[in-house]
Amino acid sequence: MLGQMLRCNRPSHHSPITSVEPSVPVTDLIRVTILAIVQGIAEFLPISSSGHLVIVGAMLGELKESPVLEIILHAGTLGSILVVFWRRILALLTGQYRVIGLMIIGTLPAVSVGLTIKKMYPELLRSPCLAGVMLIVTGMLLIVLGRMKVSEGRYPKLSMFAAFVVGCFQAVAILPGISRSGSTILGGRMMGLNREDSLTFSFLLAIPAISGATVLAVKDLLDESAVEASDEIHVLLIGAAIAFAVGIAALKWLIRWSREDRLHWFAWWCIPAGILAMALTWNEMPLDAASPNDEATPAKLSPGEGETWFEILSPEPAADEES
What we know:
Elements: H1 2-6, E1 17-19, H2 28-42, H3 49-59, H4 67-84, H5 86-93, H6 97-120, H7 128-146, H8 160-172, H9 180-190, H10 195-224, H11 233-259, H12 267-281, E2 311-313
Antiparallel strand pairs: 1-2
């Protein structure tokens, strides 16, 4: 069942994405492990988990969304936040009610923008080319972050307007390739927060944001009746555990580098990665795109015997000319 979840439509000859069979088959467990590691690292480091999952997922043949896998990986990284920031979360629940209000205000832009894009432009969330462009934008934002002066503001004293502005930065991160942590930390610094408090408020905002994304994924899961994957739940739980453990390590790394004002170093990963992704996918077309003359040759929807779903980005060989 999990193999069916992870499958994608095979591209037509219009797409630059072609298929070759790897020397070692990529199993479901390996796919989930790779995606869980990417999620755990990129969810928290300012390099965009959505962008990397779109790009890596395309290379693994994961072009079609997997609601179950999405839920599991988000749950794992959400657990990482709860573990690392448990003292601050406990403080919220035992008296810092104003901060809860700030979190609600800061979440509203992401909710409105996220629901709109998911409903009207879902293809944007799965575009490797767009992810490449936005990774370059993320790199530029991190360079700006590295040049900002240090402020001394604390997040409990943040104004409602400032919380809304930081939330707008989070809303922009709906696009694949824009780092949620990087953009919200930059927004917090612009609103006068110090390094540690801008990071803390960024991940307090992540709790309702990631929880909301998980709830939406659960809704999609129920709508699509994909609960049939329960017989492969052990593979998914391994993915959740990996995302959780890697997420804790990534969060501690992020906290340390934020205190040392080195987050802008990640720009030199984002920009080359974005350029490479753009170079490989610039001429991409939707999998269902076809010219009028190609109506009789629809895209192949399932693998043949001996074939795999492993996909890599490589030039499409030229079609033979008719004699």
